[in-house]
Amino acid sequence: MWTRSLQPARDAAGLDTVLQLTAIILLLRPFDVWWVAPFVLAAACLSLVVVGVRRSPITWLLLSALVAARIVAVWPLADNHIYLLAYWCLAIGLALAAPAPAATLATSSRWLVGAAFAMAVLWKAVLSPDYVDGRFFRVTLLTDERFADASMVFGGLTPAQMAENRKFLEPLPEGAELLTPPPFVEPPRLRAFAAGATWGGLALEAFVALLCLLPSGTRIAIGRHASLLAFCATTYALAPVAGFGWLIATMGLALCGPDQRKLRGAYVAIFVLILLYSEFPWTGVLADLTGR
User: Fold this and answer.
1) 3-state helix, strand, coil in the chain (%, to 5)
2) Residue from 247, 270, 259 nearest 112 by CA
3) Dist CA 41 CA 53 (whole Å)
């Protein structure tokens, strides 16, 4: 097993795009721990340009260990998708050491995506009452600056109303009350936007989890890819977590067969689309065009 991990996988040509996109993820989201970042960046760069490095199990096993080290170093502040990235690098390393790398990685990808989405549904639908009653998005859309433009464009708020709402939601010392509290404005469009984000996202996540955890079949596979692509295309248009979106798109690509060229192209296009979402402030442009 140890000898095999040092040798490039023989039947991994069909996984090159998956491996390259994973390396790009590591480069686009560099780690902020000085003794981890140089090794991750070097391994990712070599994986992009050197086939032998890219297809060697040891490369991805070491990357998995480095990502895990970063999680430990910043515990407990690591983003959720960093944990999934560590598992994904480990899955790649183990798959490249297996007799059938593509099939092994596809199975690992399906279970990892299914488990991640199932845990998300469990947390939101069962363990977080402030999510299912709508409070999470009703507050987040007003207080998180990254959602400000979307709240004004789709929720019907003006900049002045946004500022007043934030003053209203500012925490006060325990027991304190304002003599003249600022007004709180919540247009029906904003309530509808928050409700759609809450229940639309939860339903789509539950659908992805179910289709990934069910045994594979033609219709199941079609629904699985459709739901994953829809989730990535809609969620990351607003959610400021591009790293998670890139990872989900790459894992979806690993589920595709070598002859599914159009489907593989769709996942690569989604990867690029999420990059555009993260770099182009399209909600801000809409806010300017609509006078918000």
Assistant:
1) 75, 0, 25
2) 247
3) 13
